[in-house]
Amino acid sequence: MIDRIKKGIDRFCSRHIGGHKTIGHLTIYGWNAMHVAARLWIPKLGMYLCVHPTTHTFGGHWPWYVYLSHNATPWGAIIGFGPGFYRSDRERSEARWLTLREIHEQLVTRDLGK
After folding, report:
1. CA-to-CA distance for 100 and 105, rounded, in angstroms?
2. Alpha carbon distance 16, 90 (integer Å)
3. 10-19, 52-61, 89-98: lowest mean pLDDT where?
4. Which pLDDT band, with edges at 50, 70 and 90, does 58 fall under?
5. How many CB atoms lie within 10 A of CB 33?
């Protein structure tokens, strides 16, 4: 029953909600070539917060995931989580996160030494 409801919602949205809509720094991508997504540009960080909810499209199941990225792509993420966040992207993001932490610690240590 619930699967039928989900498929009905997906069918309706794929027919009537396509392309993307932008409101300020927020862009919502509809049912198009891949699946639903939203990205929010955060000017202070110079990065995008990207959210991909669970969807059932093109006969497949896409699990949710969330990430923070400088170029709005999962492979460019510095942090990400969720079952849909690929292992390779997760490994790269963890490496970037550790690198950023090291740089931050070096800058803080340098500034405190002055």
Report:
1. 9
2. 33
3. 10-19
4. low
5. 8
Q: How far apart are CA 59 and CA 33, in angstroms?
A: 13
Edge-to-edge strands of the sheet including 26-29? Answer: 20-23, 26-29, 37-42, 47-52, 65-69, 77-81
For 13, half-sphere exposure in the C-beta direction (CA atoms, 13 angstrom radius) is 17
pTM: 0.69
Look up residue 111 and give its DSSP letter: H
The mean predicted confidence, pLDDT, of the chain is: 79
Distance CA 62, CA 106 (A): 40
Nearest of 24, 25, 29, 2 to residue 14 by alpha carbon: 29
